[in-house]
Design a protein that fits this description.
This protein is α/β, with parallel strands linked by helices and 207 residues long. It has one domain: Spore Coat Polysaccharide Biosynthesis Protein SpsA, Chain A, CATH 3.90.550.10. 33% of the residues lie in helices and 21% in strands. The chain contains seven helices and ten strands. Strands 1, 4, 5, 6, 7, 8, 9 and 10 form an eight-stranded mixed beta sheet that branches. It has a two-stranded antiparallel ribbon with strand order 2-3. A hairpin with a 2-residue loop joins strand 7 and strand 8.
Length: 207
């Protein structure tokens, strides 16, 4: 269970950035979004929200992606089995948060969700610090998706889960204890196919 804290609980970020962008045809994490590569945008928002440490899990094209993060206060870890799905990256990121004092909780983010803001991330942390719900869930008009916050008491479950959707499995098991933060459905937008990039740019241009 969450430990008692004398000050604000340190909350980490685990940014999942290992995928091969197979549906996009090129590495989407390097796409320019409002003047910066997508992966740098997402990691920058995690740091702006005050998360520390920030762990970025790399896999496909790792050297190029790592170069785009130069100067940001983050640490990268490699998931050599990235082709086998996102669960391995989640487990690699959680494992990187040892020793136990490294963080009391972690916010898991996807590197291809450009409309997630630092304010959204900070709101999850505020909800956690206010009530210490083991998971704090993002809800987009009925769809649960990252960013999601997991208390350290759930880390072992995240590591032990098998099959698809380890993070969602843990959320389902602890739904009765969860805090829920609701966001507009449009904020769920991610980049999977080339048309998504132009749609995101249009949304951002429209404010």
């Amino acid at each position: 269970m969450p430990g008692e804290q004398t000050g604000p609980a340190p909350v980490a970020a685990v940014v999942l950035a290992a995928g091969a962008s197979t549906r996009m045809g090129e590495n989407k994490l390097l796409f320019d979004i409002e003047g910066e590569p997508l992966v740098r945008r997402v990691v920058g928002r995690a740091t702006a929200a005050g998360l520390d440490p920030v762990i970025v899990v790399l896999g496909y094209d790792a050297d190029r992606v790592r170069r785009e993060l130069a100067g940001l206060p983050c640490r990268t870890v490699l998931n050599p089995d990235y082709a086998n799905g996102i669960n391995g990256s989640l487990k690699a990121g959680i494992a990187a948060l040892d020793p136990p004092g490294a963080a009391a909780a972690a916010v898991v983010l996807l590197a291809d969700m450009p409309l997630v803001t630092a304010e959204m991330i900070a709101t999850l942390v505020e909800q956690y610090r206010a009530g210490r719900a083991p998971p704090v869930i993002s809800d987009y008009a009925g769809v649960n998706a990252p960013p999601m916050l997991y208390d350290r008491s759930l880390f072992s479950e995240l590591q032990a889960m098998e099959g698809e959707g380890c993070g969602k499995q843990v959320v389902r098991r602890h739904r009765a204890e969860a805090a829920v933060v609701r966001w507009p459905a449009a904020a769920l937008t991610d980049l999977d196919v080339p048309e998504d990039c132009e749609r995101v740019r249009a949304l951002l241009a429209a404010g």
